[in-house]
């Protein structure tokens, strides 16, 4: 049987904490924030809405799983304006997410991963002209699935905000 927590720790995540899938709420208002396109990724990658699928689809997919883990990459920063440190932590989170997916893929285990942000793997995404170049690593963010990440953390007893001198990128896996 796959030890998901051990695999997540081996991938390098700083936080590996239990997540109860029953706490997940798929909120249209979170999806509406995507549609407002403040991040400028809406409709630009396979990992973002609308390509990643409707909230109802994600609710149904997630309902298949009874266990989960909240995973965080926590970076140090000088203050809340330290963009370089935030980018470094975001990149580390992406590498850890890829490492976990690459480790789990060959096991044949049944799982569902939601990432901490849009997919930045390729310099230019193939969306919408051609299929994703790395479908085995493709997973939308928790927000893209309609999850309010701070609420998911609170509901599962995991800190979301670590203060001005740290930045946390939060993703999750269900199994
Ligand atoms: S891996 Fe590349 S092609 Fe696939 S969603 Fe990410 S950026 Fe787009």
Protein model, in words:
With 175 residues, the chain is α+β, with helices and mostly antiparallel strands. It has one domain (4-174). 30% of the residues lie in helices and 14% in strands. The protein has five helices and four strands. The protein has helices at 4-11, 28-35, 55-62, 83-104, 149-155; strands spanning 15-18, 68-76, 112-114, 166-174. Strands 1-2-4-3 form a four-stranded antiparallel beta sheet. Helix 1 packs across helix 4 (83-104). Bound molecules: iron/sulfur cluster (SF4). The site of iron/sulfur cluster has 13 residues, from loops.
Describe how the helices and strands are arranged.
Blueprint: H1 4-11, E1 15-18, H2 28-35, H3 55-62, E2 68-76, H4 83-104, E3 112-114, H5 149-155, E4 166-174
Antiparallel strand pairs: 1-2, 2-4, 3-4
Helix pairs in contact: 1-4
The structure holds iron/sulfur cluster.
Iron/sulfur cluster binds next to loops.
């Amino acid at each position: 049987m796959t030890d998901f927590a051990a695999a997540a720790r081996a991938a390098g995540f700083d936080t590996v904490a239990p997540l109860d899938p029953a706490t997940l709420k798929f909120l249209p208002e979170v999806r509406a924030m995507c549609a407002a396109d403040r991040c400028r990724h809406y409709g630009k990658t396979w990992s973002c809405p609308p390509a990643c699928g409707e909230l109802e689809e994600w609710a149904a997919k997630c309902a298949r799983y009874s266990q989960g883990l909240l995973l965080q990459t926590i970076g140090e920063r000088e203050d809340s304006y330290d963009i370089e440190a935030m980018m470094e932590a975001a990149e580390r989170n992406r590498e850890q997410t890829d490492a976990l997916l690459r480790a789990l893929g060959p096991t044949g285990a049944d799982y569902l991963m939601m990432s901490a942000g849009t997919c930045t793997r390729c310099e230019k995404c193939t969306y919408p002209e051609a299929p994703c170049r790395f479908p085995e690593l493709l997973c939308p963010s928790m927000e893209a699935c309609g999850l309010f990440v701070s609420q998911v953390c609170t509901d599962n007893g995991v800190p979301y905000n670590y203060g001005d001198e740290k930045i946390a990128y939060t993703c999750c896996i269900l199994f």
